[in-house]
Design goal:
The protein is an alpha/beta fold and 283 residues long. The protein has one domain (27-279): Alpha-Beta Barrel (TIM Barrel). The chain is 46% helix and 14% strand. The protein has an eight-stranded parallel barrel, surrounded by six helices. Helix 6 (143-164) links the parallel strand 4 (127-131) and strand 5. Helix 5 runs parallel beside helix 6 (143-164) and helix 6 packs across helix 7. The longest helix is centred in the middle third of the chain and has 22 residues, at 143-164.
Length: 283
C-alpha cells in the first residue's frame, strides 16, 4: 500500500494544481467497484483515504445468491461498520430477462431483484444497478414496442418497492444500440426511484451513436455512470487512459450537466483505479 499512497498523494497534488489554475471548481462524486469480499479491505482503505464511495458487486453472483449469502452479508456489514461514504450495489443480471413474455421467466427476475432489494436495505445501500438486457439481434417489428410495454409493467412496481426502503434503481445499458430504448421506459414510469446508468464502455462498443448523444438523450434521468475504457472490440474494463474513449472530453461533458451523475470506476483492481484517479476532481 505504500507505493499506492505515494502515487495517490502525487495525484492529489496534480488535482490541487489544476484547481489553482482555474481548471476545475466542483468536486466529482466518485465511487469504486469492489468485485468480491476478498478485495474489500484494500478497496475500503482506498475509498476512506480519498473519500470515495463503494459499489459492491458480489451480490450480483447467482451462485452466491443461491447459497449462504446471509453469512457473506454479515461479513460485509461488519467490515463496513463506520464507513461513511456512499454504498451502492450492482444487482443480479446473468440470464435475467425482465421483459420476457414468459411470465415465469419474468417472475424469476423479479425474485432475484427483490433479493437484491433486501440486501441493499441491510447494507444501507442507496442505489442498485440493474441491466435492462434488451436484445438488439431480435429484429421482429413487434419486439421493441412489446418489450417496452413489459418493461414498464415490470419496473414500475419494483420502483415503488424500492421507494419504500429509500433505494433508487438504475437501468444500465448493455447491448442497447440507442439510449431511447431505456429512456422511453423511464419517461413512461416517471419515478424518482427509477433512473438511468450509462455504461460508457458498453455504449462505445454496442452503439453507433457517440457517447455524447447518450448523455444528451438520457438527460435528467442520468444519475449514475459506469466508467471504464476499451480498445473498441471487447468489454475490457481498462483504466481511463488505456483505450479509445477520450476520458477528458467525456468527463467534461458529464460535468457540464446541470446535475452531474455519480462516477463509478468499474475497474478490476486497485492498479487500474489508481491510474484513473488523476482524471477526477477529488477533495
Amino acid at each position: 500500500m505504500g507505493s499506492l499512497v505515494t502515487s495517490l498523494a502525487q495525484s492529489m497534488d496534480m488535482l490541487y494544481n489544476k484547481r489553482k489554475a482555474g481548471q476545475g471548481n466542483c468536486m466529482d462524486r466518485v465511487s469504486i467497484s469492489c468485485e468480491r469480499l476478498s478485495d474489500l479491505e484494500g478497496h475500503q482503505a482506498l475509498a476512506e483515504s480519498c473519500k470515495l464511495g463503494l459499489e459492491l458487486q458480489e451480490f450480483s453472483n447467482p451462485t452466491l445468491l443461491d447459497n449462504d449469502w446471509h453469512s457473506q452479508l454479515r461479513e460485509y456489514q461488519s467490515s463496513l461498520n463506520g464507513f461513511v461514504q456512499p454504498i451502492t450495489m450492482h444487482g443480479a443480471f446473468i440470464d435475467l430477462i425482465s421483459g420476457s413474455p414468459d411470465r415465469r421467466v419474468a417472475a424469476l427476475a423479479r425474485d432475484r431483484y427483490r433479493q437484491n432489494l433486501d440486501i441493499a436495505h441491510a447494507l444501507s445501500a442507496t442505489v442498485i444497478d440493474f441491466h435492462a438486457n434488451y436484445l438488439p439481434l431480435v429484429d421482429h417489428p413487434s419486439y421493441l414496442p412489446d418489450w417496452e410495454n413489459r418493461q414498464v409493467d415490470f419496473w414500475g412496481p419494483l420502483a415503488e418497492e424500492a421507494a419504500r426502503i429509500g433505494v433508487t434503481l438504475v437501468l444500465e445499458n448493455m447491448w442497447e444500440p440507442d439510449p431511447r430504448i431505456i429512456g422511453r421506459v423511464l419517461k413512461r414510469i416517471k419515478s424518482p426511484n427509477l433512473k438511468a446508468c450509462l455504461d460508457v464502455g458498453h455504449a462505445s462498443l454496442y452503439s453507433r451513436l457517440p457517447i455524447g448523444e447518450w448523455i444528451k438523450d438520457l438527460g435528467d434521468d442520468l444519475i449514475y455512470t459506469h466508467l471504464h475504457n476499451n480498445h473498441g472490440t471487447t468489454d475490457e474494463h481498462l483504466a481511463f487512459g488505456d483505450g479509445v474513449i477520450d476520458f477528458p472530453e467525456l468527463l467534461a461533458t458529464l460535468r457540464a450537466l446541470p446535475k452531474p451523475p455519480m462516477f463509478i470506476l468499474e475497474l478490476p483492481n486497485l492498479e487500474s483505479i489508481q491510474a484513473s484517479l488523476p482524471y477526477l476532481e477529488l477533495e
